[in-house]
Amino acid sequence: MQDLRFMTNNNIPLTIKETQEGLKAKKFLAVELVDAYLERIKKFNPEYNIFLTITEEEAYKKARELDKVGLYDKPLSGVTASYKDIFLTKNIRTTAASKILDNYIPAYSATSVKKIEDAGAIPLGKLNCDAFAHGASGENSDYGSTKNPWNKEFVPGGSSSGSAAALAAGMSLVSLGSDTGGSTRQPANFCNLVGLKPTRGVISRYGVIAMSSSIDTVGTFTHTVDDMEIMFDVLKGEDGFDGIVKNFEKPQIKEEFKLGIAKEFFKEGLDREVEEMIEGVRKTFESINIEIVDISLPHTKYAVPIYYIIQPAEVSSNLGRFDGIRYGNNRDRFGSEAKRRIMLGSYVLSSGYYDAYFDKAQRVRTKLIEDFNLAFEKVDAILSPVSPTPPFKLGENTNDPLKMYLEDVYTASINLVGVPSLALPTMFSEGGLPIGFQLIGPNFSEHNLFELGRRYHQEINYKPKIAL
Amino acid sequence: MKYTPIIGLEVHIEPNTKSKMFCGCSQDHFGKKPNTNTCPICLGLPGALPYANKEAIKKTILLGLALGSEISKSSRFYRKHYFYPDLPKSYQTSQKENPFCIGGELLGKKINHIHLEEDAGKLIHADDGSLIDFNRSGCALIELVTEPVFHSIDEVLKFLKELQLIARYLDISSCDMEKGTMRLEANVSLGTRQQVPGNGLPDYKVELKNINSFRFLEKAIEVEIRRQELELSKGREPIQETRGYDEAKKTTFSQRSKEEAHDYRYFPEADLPPVVIDRSIILDLRSKMVELPQQKRERFEEQYKISKEFIEILVSDKKRADYFEEVAKLDSNYKTIADLIVNKRFDQKYPEPAGLAREIYNLSHMQYATDTETAEIISKVIAGNTDIVTKYNNGQTQVLGFLIGQVQKLLKGTGNPKLISRLLIEKLENDQK
Description:
heterodimer; A: 468 residues; alpha/beta; Amidase signature (AS) enzymes; 11-stranded mixed sheet; 13% strand; B: 433 residues; alpha+beta; Arc Repressor Mutant, subunit A; 3 domains; 10-stranded mixed sheet; 3-stranded antiparallel sheet; 14 helices; 17 strands
């Protein structure tokens, strides 16, 4: 058998297929995979601050079960998985990266965690993030910032900072994050990964600590589009616990695609390198006979303002349960970003201001939805940047919350509208950091987005890689 | 009185659904060991989401249909925020815009709306601190709000009792005040004659809360009206506040003033999709609608021609009314049947309606012993009970009952009581002469 104890970035499997072929061919055992991943976690975690809790015991237990049966025939058999620390895990500490939940041990597990583990995945642990998923850099964690494995001076993106960094560092094969305003797609781009924000109401949110109930979605990180499709098919569907989730049939995959580009996305504030990257991606798509169509999304300029009304309003409601009576810690343990959002949210909901802020924001949101509906009458998907810039340095934006909020300029509108978006890795900036783009589709078009992503990656002969 | 009471009601009804409003825990929490009827959802744990109970929604709509409300085509839930230890999410999932039922009327009194919400837990205050029991947390709760259209306590009580009866008829709830499946709140203010009716309302109201019986409500409103009258007569307008009722002192007392009123920060509950109520649901519920108490009263009067008093007593308990009708199918002596049920409680003696019907048949078709037979037995009894007869002769006429009993016993129950009594007295009196 192959000795994996010193698994390096040359021989670590980076796809589900590779992992399962190795297991089925008895090249390595699941417990040996766990050995190798845990060794990497222990080696790199002190420096990069990616895992908050490592579930060594659970990982070995699951691996031994898999090895005992020896079939590895479930969709995720032998796949190492880790979860953003806002996913509840029964009997395993779940902090939401906030000290107010420092010692919280959940009584039940999130539906998505159960589905992944039922599909054969090996749980490695819980991942760092911005506290309560508030942030776009991972720097709002009460347990310290996560560093970008591609360059530790830089942020890995956020709020699902650890979920992206864990994959980039080769500490886990897949991971779960959340995407409320870009929290999966932006870190996926910053760490050279595939990230999915699914259609609202396709993957159950049960057991995920809520941030903004009308826009939260469960996000997924993988190295390849194929793996993303496997994860999506495992995670989707009704569970009887999330009332907005509906089952849906996989749509017919299209032969021909029309791709839209919105002129509103190419205004001031967009980094030159990101703009050039999008231009390159456009040419690649054209070269494989995908028609590019100019479209307009006139209300997207209001997306960030309305996002920062609706989202804090819902945050203020969802965080109310941490009232100092329950969960063992007092409210002074809330970080400043949580406090800022609780105050903003309580204000826009208070009587006398509700109509001027919350209600008006909801009306503009309806306009935004109409924009996208209209666009999807003309095109099958929309090509867009994810972040206006390549990854930025740790500390660069921390003193300016407004600037940090503008990170969401290309992502928040998608959450407000509810449609799916697939973030794809493509290249590295002049500074050697990953940059990427997103493909936004109409509701329930995930499989068509996967098809488009696959065609693109085939054309550029994309090979997944890790930083460490 | 210079003033006219202006009263509006808020009635909470706990429907008898199988499960709670948003989770699978049992709706029936009464008398259970604390915190044994809970789950992540009704404990409001992080990550838990609500899942709406269709049965509770249907029962709410059914009540609205019975009261002539307009049923919203699309209704949704809202979050109502306030901090309290027994409210684990810091908000109650309730309704605001487009509740399930809008408007309606009962006994000529206008209803504002009927909505559906969840109940809170219960605080138990012990010597060494306060405890929280979440067994009731998340239970389905129907709230009916009337317009401020009541002007006397009598009107209020009539309305509430009829509402209780309707909810029981529709099998919506037991509406048991003692178990808290029906809870009452009244908004009371006093208006001058010009203000009533419909000429604008006083600019204050006092909310009477936490009242758990019709009797207490009656008393609470009564003393509250007197208190407000006194205030007004001194030239002071009562302040807007929430007051409770102290039965021991027979007074109301302030619980919360207007300044402490909550800003509930309502907004739509995004965790639950809007509930679309299409025509088929309403048609289905209409087809299941039972005869309501008032319809039954009218039909009983028409069909059985029994007295209003009998009708009222029978209709006030659907089971008894049904029982009456079952017996009435077998025997057409409606007045006798009603009398036996209402005055003699024969419905308890004969749980099967057919049993009572047989009894009525036996009573009306009994073959009594003949006059001669009866006279013979009377002679025997008198001869065999000389001591008792002596007592009678000495003026102790109460012994007559004993003698009648003895006669009936020897006749094996076939004696006509009136005949025995007449012949016995005749014989005793004659023997004395």
